Amino acid sequence: MLKLLIFLQHPFALWSAPAWFSERLRKEFTSVNVVQLPDYSRVDAEIPDTDVAITWSIKPEQVLAAKKLRWIHSTAAAIHTLIFPELVNSDIIITNARDVHGPVVAEQVIALIFALARKIPDAVRFQLKHEWGQERMWDELPRVREVAGATVGLIGIGSIGRAVARSAKALGMRVIAAREHPEKGTDGADAVFGPGQTDEIFRQADYVVLAAPTTNATQSIASADRVALMKPDACLINVGRGPLLDEEVLVRALREKKIGGAALDVFPKEPLDPASPLWDVPNLLITPHTAGLTDKVWERHYTLFSENLRRFLKGEPLLAVVNKQEGY
After folding, report:
1. Residue 200 bears catalytic tag
2. Where do the structural domains in the chain lie, given as residue ranges?
């Protein structure tokens, strides 16, 4: 009997698999032995005879001990925690949840664009002070503006980027994107640039959206040189991963009013330290890694994983397979 081991533990309850997830799998896949662990304490004991695992975190020595392991599914979109030699060089397939999270994160991107364009954080601050801030909201740069006709620049056009492109185009925005392999097509963007042309995204966009996976090539992709290329009223949005952005560069650019604003949903270290200077930076909107939150998340996880499990049992190609060499 094939053994499926589920080990997902996170301080934030939403990221831990609910009990009904494994119960439904047992009812639907009666030929599969589904084992769901409440924490990581028994992983070493359970992993040797495991065929399939659902996790975003596994140790190299556990991979080596898992002689039967053929497939790992991560319920996260980012899989950088799984990219280590013992796993990359193995025959183990990795799939991820990029199509589960992508459309939801894209909604957050559009919300952040509107919030920055219409200066919603400023309006909230004036409301808390019982102050009618109409004149100040108009006089203080950057001014309240429309999104129609503005340019969205996507760093990465995967599941998030494609969904952002669709929504942005529907709002009358121009969409440009940088991707590792431009030969794969535009995926709804008006123009696509290769890795050597990433500067053009920062130079042209009114809203630069960081939505790329974390790889060696994307670390600090929003560097000081690139932020310096941005228009003085342009905004930077990060919903990818914290390491895509040099936070010190952003703080400096905002304080010196070199760019118009920014919105961050992800950070190199989470939760964000209460002493972080980011909390008090002008024209910076912080959301506490909420872009992927939805009450439908585990239903979507189940839909994706159960379809893949059916395919796996039939020996068919899986959905959302990760390129282990490229890291996404």
Report:
1. no
2. 2-99+295-314, 101-286
- One fold for 2-99+295-314 and 101-286: yes
CA–CA separation, 325 and 99 (whole Å)? 20
β-pair partners for 34? 4
- Residue 309 half-sphere exposure, CB side, CA atoms within 13 Å? 26
Q: Is 70 one of the annotated active-site residues of the chain?
A: no
Give CA–CA dist 36/57, Å, rounded.
Answer: 15
Residue length of the chain = 328
pLDDT 10s digits, 235-288: 999 999 999 999 999 999 999 999 999 999 999 999 999 999 999 999 999 999
- Cα-trace Rg, the chain: 22
Catalytic residue among 73, 241, 247, 301: 241
Active-site annotation holder among 24, 80, 203, 289: 289
The secondary element (H helix, E strand) that includes residue 35 is: strand 32-37
181-201 pLDDT per residue, tens: 999 999 999 999 999 999 999
With respect to CATH, is domain 101-286 assigned 3.40.50.720? yes
Cis upstream peptide for 282 (omega within 30°): no
Q: Are 34 and 6 in contact (CB under 8 A)?
A: yes
What dotted CATH number matches 2-99+295-314?
3.40.50.720
- Catalytic, 270? Answer yes
